[in-house]
Amino acid sequence: PLVSTGELVSAAAAGGQGVAAFNVITLEHAEAIAAGAERAGRPAILQISENAVKFHGGRLTAIAAATAAVARASDAPLSLHLDHVESPGLLRAADGEGFSSVMFDASKLSYGANVAATSEAVVWGHARGIWIEAELGKVGGKDGEPPLGAHAPGVRTDPAEAVAYVRDTGVDALAVAVGSSHAMTDRTAALDHELIGALRRAVPVPLVLHGSSGVPDAEIRQAVAAGMVKINVGTALNTAFTGAARAFLAADTKTVDPRKYLVPAREAMTGTVAAFLKVISG
Ligand code: G3H
Ligand code: ZN
Asked: Is the Cβ–Cβ distance between 130 and 94 less than 8 Å?
């Protein structure tokens, strides 16, 4: 069934567990996330990023409606989240499309401009029952930026600044920069567990780990145990999907029916989803 992100995150936080949010690019991603959640017997968050909306021609309705339909038809509790929204226009388009949450990403702006823009997004969301996540610090690695940027201590989230940011914006959850980086295809990120602990003690809302594809299982487990709640995974699904499709097509140069390679590609993503859900269930 389609449930709300707020209830999944609150339940995970109360139970000392994590809840995973997986990025949807194609319908096969949504189907694989639902199947992986059913296989693991766990809830999950289906998230569509602003970049994925752009890929679908900038029109939110088709991919959002299809993803919501997959969630409604599933036996697993699944919620719909709009991810890394930089455009205020797209934020407003989320209303009425099945989204119970949005990550409003003003992390490229200065601190003051980030607070002002995010506060407005929170007022807008809360008037409609939409849960708002925001980012302070910079996870990095988006849009082809060099992933190593996020490993520099200067871009990490400062606990005292995070407390003021949550107080001044009213956000429901905070994405923090603690050593992970977006779009990693190997799992070599080293998290700053001391910083995660300090943020957890200081910040009153659930913390979100972005760029979790590059984080080893043991580090994810340790981060969840220290209080990281929403665990965002995107690239790992694409690595599985493309790897399986590439292997099929390399071995078979005659097939033209896309279902022939989309079946193993989707199944590879399902396995990746189920494996992540087992890691974060504690
Ligand atoms: O918001 C989405 C996530 O941060 C995904 O990051 O593709 O590096 O796993 P990833
Ligand atoms: Zn992210």
From this structure: yes
ipTM of the prediction greater than 0.90, yes or no: yes
CB 105 within 8 A of CB 81: no
pTM exceeds 0.90: yes
Kindly state if the Cβ of 235 falls inside 6 Å of ligand 1: yes
Task: Identify the bridge partners of residue 80 per DSSP, sorted by sequence position.
Answer: 46
Nearest atom of ligand 1 to the alpha carbon of 183: 8
Concerning whether 83 is annotated as a catalytic residue, the answer is yes
pLDDT by residue (tens digit) across 221-264?
A: 999 999 999 999 999 999 999 999 999 999 999 999 999 999 99
- CA atoms within 13 A of residue 33's CA, in its CB half-sphere: 34
Give the ligand 1 atom nearest the CA of 212: 9
Cβ contact 261:245 at 8 Å: yes
Question: In testing the pocket of ligand 1, which one of 19, 85, 176, 182 has its CB within 8 Å of the most ligand atoms?
Answer: 182
pLDDT digits (tens, 9 = 90+) for 158-195: 999 999 999 999 999 999 999 999 999 999 999 999 99
- How far, in Å, is the centroid of ligand 1 from the Cα of 67? 18
* Domain range list for the chain: 5-280
Q: Is 75 exposed, middle or buried (0-12, 13-18, 19+ CB in 10 A)?
A: exposed
Q: How does pLDDT run across 19-51, given as a tens digit for each residue?
A: 999 999 999 999 999 999 999 999 999 999 999
- C-beta 50 within 6 A of ligand 1: no
CA 240–ligand 1 middle distance (angstroms): 14
CB hemisphere CA count around 246 (13 angstroms) = 6
Rounded-to-integer distance, Cα 183 and Cα 242, Å: 14
Which superfamily is assigned to 5-280 in CATH? Answer: Aldolase class I (3.20.20.70)
